[in-house]
Model the fold of this input.
Amino acid sequence: MSAPEARIAVVSAGLGEPSSTRMLADRIVAATTAALAERGGAASARVFELRDVAHDITNNLLTGFAPKPLAELNAAVAEADALVAVTPVFSTSYSGLFKSWVDVLDREALVGTPVLLAATAGTARHSLAIDYAMRPLFTYLHAEPLSTGVFASSDDWGAQADQVAPLAKRIDRAAAELADRLAGAGRTERTDPFSPEAYLGGGSFEDLLAHPPRG
Done:
């Protein structure tokens, strides 16, 4: 019996069209899918552009309610077996759009989810943003950021790209790590925190009323 197809949600916070952030996301997805196939698995990926729901994110922050496109994005992220999160670096950190999306994401959505972190910037001087900005953010959400992140500067896309540690090699390394996680784990199952099973140990409200705790 073959393993179920892994579900990968991909969130790109690029602002341009096209953008290097989206290009990096696409290359990571392709490398991960190929690496997982080498391990006898398969994956389907849904790619979301935050620029498409930027107004919805703002409305959610103001009203507390997510419009349908944003709600669908967040649901796909919560149901995914893994997340690929890619943001441009602005002012030495993730973009405001990216952080605003995280602010409207359910706090339980990424618990235990492997996350491949990636970022783009105009200069390699911002390469540590993944570790000092993105990693603590997803750790706070109780996700499981992979040890290998992928950073791409403008030079990585040109003829003068790094030949010692080329972007393709860095992508393949991170993709292999994510593929190992997906191949070695079953489908992520999440418990509804508002269901009785989550806080009544599998019982019901009737059981609780019939047999109240003592003390």
